[in-house]
């Protein structure tokens, strides 16, 4: 069903979604549904969204978390939808979305479930919610199972809801039976309704029998222009006709002497990539493909055919009302359930048996069985009030946002003398006589690094992956080694390796798809990552062997981790608490920490740490002239230049950031700071709350000055403070008044630090409950999977 000129809204009482994902997938595809509302989903927190994935759709849900109930939406991924939590009443089962389409007003779409056992007060609350929503919007649709028969005109419930619908200028447009009687002892009823205030813009609502529920699917099409749905686009190399022996022969027969004879590293790399790229394209050509992942690969023709027979049997039974026809339908329904289970069991059984000798491959199969999938987001975006569907335009918008965000932060900073941030480091290095000169590497080193590459490493903008480099590691080690050494000797980082492909990762899948809800991750050329690893290893060895890392830093130091950082802090806090003191901690949060690093300050600090001029030249060249393109749905944006920052997604970037903040702890007076990469926690202890407030404020002032001096930015809205105390001090007031410049630091009683949940009594109750809940979900998931 469905008209090409409109959006199809549908509802189905699914009576437990848990084992009916196959059915929902088929219904969405067959009926061309854009927004599917579901009632009686019977879900709880042990069912993650990834376990309920329907390809091409996003899931929004509201669970009852008790027996039965629950409402949800599946929305096609080319439609911009926002969950409207403020419209949802706690007292009734209802969920609301705002749908934004090109050339249309925003439309509110709701799904409601009224249990048949509920009283008149429950219906009154539904009516109040309808009235409240109708007063806030232009176009509105409310679909659901109301358990009120539209054919029973004289019932109290009917009169109540029709009165409210008229008051809200809503019309109930479903006039066909939605729950079909299977025998003559009962009557068919219209208990699933569609309410709207724009009936004139809609085609006639329809009721369609489906075999997976005793309710019919109800649907309505609203006339509007729909955005194109081209699916997810991806570029990958095709290994369909790849012959490794022929590929190696072509590599061996090529002339690499021009690469190793070239002194200029950029010219050498360009020659290498031109020759190597042609051979790779010949044997493993780059192909554009539309991603059509199958959420139920075991769903074959046999099972589909049986599902159709079951659906037809239901139609026959509902028309004839004969017991024999209903019995036939039930037999076919049970056969579908059993065959689906057997097909799924056979599919995963074969994959698990074929992966028993490969733990990595086995884990992938288990993840597929547990439906562990990465977050996906809308293919369209609202930009300036307009729905944009072209991937190139969205990619450019994201790229502009990422660059402009950093530029705005930089423009708000006060320019400081770059020599002043290095004073602490100069004091540290007074008694140290060390210098870092990057050593050249051997062909064996290069070959080992190439062979250690994972096959599934995401390729950079050149689409040269680790799999193909590993195949020729013992053939190309010489020219690649020459390029690496020319870069180290000349202090020049090749321009091709400074091109980043940005993958936007959504931060919160429950929030709207906007540029501010995306995190940029840099994907660099694989050869660039290998060269960075060489630099990383030498830098890390230099800092560790010369004891240049502060003891406050728990990242990149042997024997140190988030565990040691947490153990150290908690041990200090407990010691102070044993002395009947208050302990105050400020959890600092940096805004765009990696992206705003000032190159001049970083280089000045590296010089103080003993980097030679040639080593500084290489790092300076690595940082300067970097470019980025955003990849969105197969389309690359225009090129943008990065004026500051270190690339996220690189191995060298986090190390450079840790070196950048390494001297922060030297600013502390009568307090301590613990660092782990871009996480920083400042804490101190005092006998009284006023003393604690004064001490922490003094430390915050020092931190704030250091941050400004180093041209970083503190996120005052995410920076929190907490006071730890014993039960002995629990009843005493302990409110802090800490400020960063003019912004008040929020005080909390519970927080999350380095992945651990803490409360102000260090009771560990929240962390234990979190782990128990997580284990419970895992056990429940394992229990469901063990049958396969």
TrEMBL record:
Record-linked Pfam families: Exo_endo_phos, RVT_1
Spans through the membrane: none
InterPro entries per the UniProt record, alphabetical: DNA/RNA_pol_sf, Endo/exonu/phosph_ase_sf, Endo/exonuclease/phosphatase, Rev_trsase/Diguanyl_cyclase, RT_dom
Family per record: Belongs to the beta type-B retroviral polymerase family. HERV class-II K(HML-2) pol subfamily.
Name of the protein in question: ribonuclease H
SUPFAM superfamilies: DNA/RNA polymerases, DNase I-like
Superkingdom, natural source: Eukaryota
EC number, UniProt record: 3.1.26.4
């Amino acid at each position: 069903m469905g008209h090409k000129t409109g959006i199809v809204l549908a509802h189905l009482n699914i009576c437990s979604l848990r084992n009916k994902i196959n059915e929902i997938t088929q219904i969405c595809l067959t009926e061309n549904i854009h927004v599917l509302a579901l009632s009686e989903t019977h879900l709880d927190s042990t069912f993650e969204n990834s376990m309920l994935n329907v390809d091409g759709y996003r899931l929004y849900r509201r669970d009852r978390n008790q027996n039965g109930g629950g409402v949800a939406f599946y929305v096609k991924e080319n439609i911009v939808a926002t969950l409207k939590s403020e419209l949802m009443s706690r007292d009734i089962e209802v969920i609301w979305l705002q749908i934004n389409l090109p050339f249309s007003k925003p439309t509110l779409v709701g799904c409601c479930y009224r249990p048949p056992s509920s009283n008149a007060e429950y219906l009154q609350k539904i009516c109040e919610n309808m009235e409240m929503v109708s007063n806030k919007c232009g176009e509105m649709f409310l679909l659901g199972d109301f358990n009120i028969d539209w054919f029973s005109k004289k019932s109290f419930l009917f009169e109540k809801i029709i009165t409210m619908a008229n008051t809200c200028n809503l019309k109930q447009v479903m006039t066909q039976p939605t729950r079909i009687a299977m025998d003559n002892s009962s009557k068919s009823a219209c208990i699933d309704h569609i309410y709207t205030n724009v009936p004139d813009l809609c085609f006639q609502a329809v009721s369609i029998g489906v075999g997976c529920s005793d309710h019919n699917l109800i649907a309505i099409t609203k006339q509007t222009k729909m955005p194109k749905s081209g699916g997810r686009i991806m570029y990958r190399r095709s290994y369909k006709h790849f012959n490794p022996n022929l590929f190696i022969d072509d590599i061996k027969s090529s002339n690499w002497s021009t690469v190793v004879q070239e002194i200029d590293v950029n010219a050498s790399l360009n020659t290498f990539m031109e020759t190597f790229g042609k051979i790779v394209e010949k044997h493993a050509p780059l192909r554009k493909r539309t991603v059509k992942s199958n959420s139920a690969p075991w769903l074959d023709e046999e099972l589909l055919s049986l599902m159709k027979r079951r659906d037809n049997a239901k139609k026959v039974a509902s028309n004839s009302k004969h017991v024999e026809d209903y019995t036939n339908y039930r037999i076919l329904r049970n056969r579908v359930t059993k065959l689906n289970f057997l097909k799924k069991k056979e599919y995963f059984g074969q994959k698990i048996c074929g992966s028993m000798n490969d733990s990595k491959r086995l884990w992938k199969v288990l993840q597929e069985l547990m439906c562990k999938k990465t977050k996906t987001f809308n293919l369209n975006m609202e930009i300036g009030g307009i729905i944009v569907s072209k991937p190139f335009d969205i990619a450019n918008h994201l790229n502009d946002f990422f660059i402009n965000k950093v530029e705005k932060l930089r423009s708000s900073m006060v320019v400081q003398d770059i020599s002043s941030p290095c004073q602490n480091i100069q004091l540290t290095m007074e008694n140290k006589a060390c210098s870092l000169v990057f050593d050249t590497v051997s062909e064996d080193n290069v070959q080992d690094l190439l062979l250690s590459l994972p096959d599934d490493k995401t390729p950079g903008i050149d689409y040269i992956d680790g799999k193909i480099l590993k195949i020729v590691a013992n053939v190309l080690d010489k020219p690649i080694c020459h390029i690496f050494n020319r870069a180290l000797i000349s202090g020049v980082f090749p321009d091709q390796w400074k091109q980043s492909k940005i993958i936007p990762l959504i931060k919160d899948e429950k929030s709207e798809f906007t540029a501010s809800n995306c995190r940029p991750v840099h994907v660099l050329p694989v050869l660039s990552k290998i060269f960075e690893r060489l630099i990383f290893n030498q830098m890390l060895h230099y800092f560790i062997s010369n004891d240049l890392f502060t003891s406050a830093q728990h990242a990149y130091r042997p024997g140190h981790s988030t565990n040691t950082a947490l153990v150290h802090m908690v041990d200090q806090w407990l010691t102070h608490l044993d002395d009947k003191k208050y302990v105050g901690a400020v959890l600092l949060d940096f805004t765009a920490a990696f992206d705003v690093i000032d190159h001049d300050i970083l280089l000045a600090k590296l010089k103080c740490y003993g980097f030679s001029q040639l080593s500084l030249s290489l790092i300076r060249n690595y940082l300067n002239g970097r470019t980025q393109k955003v990849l969105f749905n197969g389309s690359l944006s225009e090129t943008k230049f990065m004026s500051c920052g270190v690339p996220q997604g690189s191995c060298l970037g986090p190390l450079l950031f840790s070196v950048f903040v390494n001297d922060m702890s030297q600013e502390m007076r009568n307090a301590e700071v613990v660092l782990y990469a871009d996480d920083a926690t400042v804490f101190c202890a005092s006998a009284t709350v006023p003393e604690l407030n004064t001490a922490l404020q003094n430390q915050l002032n020092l931190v704030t000055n250091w941050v400004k001096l180093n041209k970083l930015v503190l996120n005052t809205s995410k920076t929190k403070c907490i006071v730890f105390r014993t039960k002995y001090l629990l009843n005493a007031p302990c409110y802090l008044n800490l400020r960063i410049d003019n912004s008040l630091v929020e005080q909390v009683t519970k927080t999350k630090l380095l992945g651990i949940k803490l409360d102000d009594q260090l009771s560990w109750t929240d962390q234990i409950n979190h782990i128990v809940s997580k284990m419970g979900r895992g056990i429940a998931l394992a229990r469901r999977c063990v049958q396969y």
